[in-house]
Design a protein that fits this description.
By secondary structure, the chain is mainly α. The protein is built from two helices and no strands.
């Protein structure tokens, strides 16, 4: 492995490690503060959620647009370009 390639892989693994570490820290903080109950001022009560009548129903209509690229594809292309090496020919598409 060439030194340039080794440095590239080191940077990639460092980015993945940092993303995983911050995600873990974020989950810990979220669950630690998420379990706390909401503190209401003295003399104030929490109002219960409004109940839905049993005979109520809702309908929704989904309208799909034509020729729309989902955001996951653009994210995939971005990540793919980050990990692509220019050392040789790529796979034929």
């Amino acid at each position: 492995m060439l030194p340039e390639q080794a440095l590239r892989w080191k940077a990639r693994f460092a980015a993945i490690y940092a993303m995983g570490s911050w995600s873990l820290l974020g989950c810990i903080v979220y669950y630690y503060w998420g379990d706390r109950k909401e503190q209401l001022p003295p003399g104030e009560e929490r109002t219960p959620p409004r109940e839905r009548p049993p005979d109520a129903f809702f309908t929704s209509t989904i309208v799909y647009k034509e020729n729309v690229v989902p955001p996951t594809y653009s994210l995939y292309d971005y990540v793919k370009s980050f990990f692509a090496t220019s050392g040789g020919p790529g796979p034929e598409e």
